[in-house]
Design a protein that fits this description.
The complex is a heterodimer of chains A (about 500) and B (about 325). Chain A has 17 helices and 22 strands. With about 500 residues, chain A is an alpha/beta fold. Chain B is mostly helical. Classes of the chains: A alpha/beta (about 500), B mainly alpha (about 325).
Chain lengths: ~500, ~325
């Protein structure tokens, strides 16, 4: 527990309502944050967390309700007023000017000038250096943003708020883009900040991190205030079920099942990355029907290139990948999908999984639009296309249930459901799932895991690639550890030991 | 030998003279595009500025008043572009095209009213002054028609243009306002969350670009020549636009590019005056051919401002 001053209410939001037309994004939400407190705001994607914070930061006007800062009523009209009242926000998608330096980004809108209106960059740089030292936010004031790591960019965002004298910091999904090490650094920074009497509101749907840093947690579901709890008094399961509105199981249920015939055989596969360096370097792997084979590994050990070679998106330099003894390397994606029965849930669903501007129905036939099922001669058969969409929307519980809605209007979880629906509807023999739960909340994660297990239970082969070791251990039947483009060990998931796998992932021998 | 030096002086001098209108307009382009608003309406603004400048210089018999009218005229068209693109989120290219019809249309319409139905103004009584003229000629520092005279005895607009290159660079890269303009052009959302008004910055920048393009037009009609005619501008605004891109959206880069294009014009006039057996029409194509060759061949990869041409709608964000 941080040193909280319970007599000092830094933020009070009382019965805040925010409507967008007919849609109520926030429905009577109450939130109190004391000085020195870390308060988590928990909710599924689209529950209204970010809307609430945008109300606090002055980007939105509340339809009803009151906001008080340090006991004083505040009508925030624009970000300037929020900034003046000591509120700072670190957005999920960083608000940085990429070609500018760290210092320029931090002082923007709040510049100190000398004669002729010239910016006093030297002075600003030394102020920022002092500030970063004080809070342990290591960053070079002269560095250009586009050269910085994501973690360092986030530190710049935090410095931006501190430079403006923020006492209340809103962090929107701060860990979504960080590596595990960077997350630990952030936890340290948060402790430094509360020690100085700052209050922190952290928007997240990651339960582990709430347990780790937050003192209190307010749960929002579909725009409504569900509960505010003291984090020490509840379990992760409690938080999850409050968030989703039903019991959530973290354990993936699956019955043991005998291994089927070998369906995919990878022999001495070499795949080069975009720079021409072999990222997959003599990889050997077998995949059997009726199993989920998880590939564990640290990001950048050849996972992406392996998937791309198997799906025809990247040429293989040498070696073979055989599906039912037939070579698939260097075939076009279309052939691999249609003739060899491989389906692919891509790593980057927004870039490769769907077309943002197309509607759900169109996205659902991206692979099959030219087949007889959806076209008559030269033209598309929209009746069938929309009928197909309605069926899949029903079966895979895609929300909202409107096949004419553009893909970009869906939440991340529902976009993923749509991709899974499309890929599974193809009735593949092999399903390659790359980072299938990235950025999803617990409810959606549970759904995706179930879908993978379903495929396995039907006797299909599933290749799961994930950077989350918990996920790999939980979902897989067998685990293959990838390191520097090679499989360095295969373990039965039953007797998987997290430490042992972790060591192998780092290149050590178990 | 002496002829050669004089010829070089002549070419440099005409280069400076013909570059000047481009420099003004190009600087306008730098300012607006740095704020994230594309302005292909520079041509139309330049056209209108050329007319307004010449007409005012004719009636008031004062080139400075002409220059002021040209600036304000361009600025009004800039305001229209800003209203369309910033307040009403219009497609910037389309609005620019409209300006390119509106500028000449308005100029010719007013010209016909003021000058008895003519699509050109009468000759202005006083051109832009030559501020350094006292240095040259009999009994002065440098002889008349010598190298120094040919190069440096130039209209005031030439010196103003070079000074403005420095001023625009200084404002963009050394001052608060300039940093905000560039930030808005790269990432308007980031600027907005820091309490900067994207609308105000963009209005200012687009109007400034109109002002500069207007001055560029006048630098043509009341300095290079001494009247406005309907073919006077014929593509100079577009060349200035190309120069800005060739100059990588930087004032100093735009300056160099404009000098290059001006140089092509200088060469054209020199070759024409020497009676080189190349048809004049072909020579006149030189600056335009150079534009295409340079844009295709030499510019290569450039990085425009991050948010250029993108419509910024506050309510859609965050």
């Amino acid at each position: 527990m941080n040193s909280i001053d319970f007599s000092h209410k830094a933020v009070e939001m009382v019965d805040v309502v925010k409507k967008f037309g007919d849609f109520t994004a926030n429905d009577r939400i109450n939130l109190t944050v004391h000085k020195g407190e870390v308060h988590a705001l928990l909710g599924e994607n689209g529950a209204g967390k970010t809307t609430l914070m945008n109300v606090l930061y002055g980007l939105y006007q509340p339809t009803e309700g009151a906001v008080r800062i340090n006991g004083k009523p505040l009508s925030v009209k624009d970000p300037n007023v929020a900034i003046k009242n000591g509120i700072g926000m670190v957005h999920q998608h960083f608000m940085l000017v990429e070609p500018f330096t760290v210092t320029q980004n931090i002082i923007l809108g709040n510049e100190t000038t000398k004669m002729l209106g010239m910016i006093d960059i030297k002075k600003a740089e030394s102020e920022i250096a002092a500030l970063s030292e004080r809070y342990g936010l290591a960053v070079d004031p002269k560095a250009v943003i586009q050269d910085l790591s994501v973690g360092a960019q986030q530190r710049v965002e935090i410095l931006k708020t501190l430079y403006r004298g923020a006492q209340i910091l809103i962090l929107d999904e701060p860990t979504a883009v960080l590596t595990p090490q960077e997350i630990q650094e952030l936890v340290g920074i948060i402790h430094n900040l509360t020690r100085e009497g700052k209050s922190i509101i952290i928007i997240t749907h990651k339960l582990k991190e709430i347990k780790q840093v937050a003192d209190f947690c307010t749960i929002i579901r579909r725009g409504k205030h569900i509960d505010t709890v003291e984090v020490d008094q509840v379990t992760e399961e409690d938080l999850a079920s409050k968030m989703v509105g039903r019991e959530v199981s973290f354990k993936v249920e699956k019955d043991p099942q005998p291994q089927g015939d070998r369906i995919l055989e990878i022999r001495d596969l070499v795949v080069e990355d975009s720079r021409g360096i072999p990222a997959v370097n003599g990889l050997n792997l077998d995949l059997y029907k009726g199993e989920i084979l998880g590939i564990a590994g640290v990001d950048g050990n050849g996972q992406t290139e392996l998937i791309e070679a198997l799906t025809g998106l990247r040429p293989a330099k040498s070696g073979q990948a055989l599906v039912r003894e037939k070579e698939i390397t260097n075939l076009t994606p279309g052939k691999i999908i249609q003739q060899h029965g491989i389906s692919h849930i891509p790593e980057d669903r927004q870039k490769r999984g769907l077309i943002f501007e197309f509607d759900i129905a169109e996205n659902l036939i991206l692979e099959n639009y030219a087949t007889e099922a959806f076209s008559k001669g030269f033209t598309l058969d929209f009746k069938r296309i929309y009928r197909n969409a309605d069926q899949l929307i029903e079966k895979f519980d895609i929300r909202p249930q409107n096949s004419k809605l553009a893909a970009k209007a869906l939440s991340g979880g529902n976009q993923q459901k749509m991709i899974i629906a499309r890929e599974v509807a193809n009735d593949p023999d092999i399903l390659i799932a790359a980072q299938p739960t990235r950025g999803l909340d617990v409810g959606a994660i549970e759904y995706v895991h179930k879908a993978l297990v379903d495929q396995r239970n039907q006797g299909k082969a599933v290749l799961l690639i994930s950077f989350e070791l918990d996920e790999v251990i939980n979902v897989s039947d067998r685990i293959a550890v990838i390191y520097e483009g090679k499989i360095v060990g295969i373990i039965d998931a039953h007797d998987a030991d997290e430490k042992e796998i972790g060591l192998m992932m780092a290149g050590g021998t178990a | 030998m002496e002829t050669l030096i004089k010829d070089i002086g002549f070419i440099i001098g005409t280069t400076l003279m013909y570059s000047t209108p481009l420099i003004f307009t190009s600087l306008g382009g730098v300012i607006t595009e740095r704020s994230g608003v594309v302005n292909i309406g520079l041509e139309g603004m330049m056209y209108f500025g050329a007319f307004a400048g010449a007409a005012a210089a004719y009636f008031y018999q004062d080139p400075w008043i002409g220059l002021a009218f040209a600036g304000v005229g361009g600025m009004i068209l800039g305001l229209i572009h800003a209203i369309a693109c910033v307040s009403f989120s219009a497609e910037q290219i389309v609005s620019g095209i409209a300006i390119n019809f509106l500028g000449p249309g308005a100029a010719l319409f007013i010209s016909r009213m003021l000058f008895d139905g003519a699509t050109q103004t009468l000759t202005i009584p006083n051109k832009m002054p030559l501020p350094l003229d006292f240095l040259f000629g009999e009994g002065n520092l440098f002889p008349s028609s010598g190298f120094m005279d040919l190069v440096f005895n130039r209209f005031a607009t030439v010196y103003i243009a070079f000074f403005l290159v420095f001023l625009v660079w200084f404002v963009l890269y050394r001052t608060k306002v300039g940093m905000r303009v560039r930030a808005v052009g790269e990432n308007p959302e980031a600027a907005m969350t820091l309490g900067i008004s994207v609308t105000r910055i963009r209005y200012g920048a687009v109007m400034m670009s109109g002002l500069f393009a207007g001055l560029g037009g006048a630098a043509m009609s009341i300095a290079v020549v001494s009247r406005f005619s309907n073919t006077l501008i014929s593509g100079h605004g577009f060349i200035a636009l190309a120069a800005m891109i060739f100059g990588k959206w930087k004032p100093q880069g735009a300056l160099l590019a404009c000098l290059l294009f001006g140089g092509a014009k200088g060469l054209e006039i020199f070759l024409g005056s020497k009676g080189v057996p190349i048809p004049g029409d072909i020579l006149a194509m030189l600056p335009y051919i150079l534009t295409i060759v340079i844009l295709v061949g030499l510019v290569g990869q450039t990085t425009p401002p991050g948010a250029i041409g993108k419509i910024f709608d506050k309510s859609e964000h965050s």
